[in-house]
């Protein structure tokens, strides 16, 4: 059948009609273990009863009224996010890219409000991914995403990942801010060292810059803390959230300190749908679950177990997996075979994963995943690796065969 969708995705010929927790059920009734979570979106899994109840209740009242009027549900979500973070104020929108656009505008407006309108440039890092709008593509600076869309939006200076000297050299009289993902998910689950984040904070303080964290993928419990920056002692001035904030309902947010948001006054920014009652009711339900005692403890405990079991798989298949990286339940397997091949092999075992840069396979189970489901995921990964190792040539095939013998011994 001819599709009338714009062909911007290489879609797999597989459709799901319902989900239950960490599982997806395809149209043909087959069950798949979901270790993609809609690319870190379905943090509470599928059909979570708390989210279903909140959505149904609000749907019977009012969906949308516009931001011309007070929205009590939005006030509550904003208050809870601020109480749980560094922030004083929040702007709601519909996606991560929109949250990043707000963050960029807030940083520029801050400098303008402080009588330095010439300070509009933002330092970013090679390999970053900040969204698909023209400005956020320019912030990421990746040629493959920029080609064919005309002149690149001005105002962004990319420096090598983790290079503090290059960062210092990039700071100039027009610099407004530094933007970074605490864990660079799309580019291969590259964890930024806390020492580097501290150094960026020091440079911002020294030069009057704002520090922006893109936590679109890492925020809302994914790393075992509510926000990834809380793994250390480095606080940003501005932070973008999305993905898991709505548990699957489209929602983004830009958080900031009052000082950083100084220039964002009436009329300086807006969003037609952002923060409407339906989205905010779901977000409050997400926070009800994530802020409950023991929730993040579960994420940390299950993440430790998962990484330990993945280390065993790496040792068992040294010709296939070079490294296990990441924090919490944002895990990357750097593969020695094409990452897409491993994703396909996992799907053949009825398990969903997603590729990333640096030949990495991302594993993003829902945060409510159980020990039994982790064990099931490991078993399916084991079988997928066994399926692949037979195709590994030469010396690598010898190493893979050794991995298979180790696997049999471990049984």
Describe the structure.
- The chain has 411 residues and is α/β, with parallel strands linked by helices.
- It has a domain at 49-290: 3-Layer(aba) Sandwich (Aspartate Aminotransferase, domain 2).
- Helices cover 39% and strands 18% of the residues.
- The protein contains 13 helices and 17 strands.
- The strands form four sheets. Strands 4-12-11-10-7-5-6 form a seven-stranded mixed sheet, sandwiched between helices.
- α10 (295-316) packs parallel to α12.
- The relative contact order is 0.15.
- Mean pLDDT is 94; it is low at 395-411.
Summarize the structure.
This protein is of the alpha/beta class and 411 residues long.
Architecture of the domain at 49-290, according to CATH? 3-Layer(aba) Sandwich
The level 1 CATH classification of the domain at 49-290 is Alpha Beta
> pLDDT under 50 segments (min length 5)?
395-411
Number of DSSP-assigned strands: 17
**What's the mean pLDDT score?**
94
Strand content: 15-25%
Helix share bin: 25-40%
Largest sheet: 7 strands, mixed
**Multimeric status of the protein:** single chain
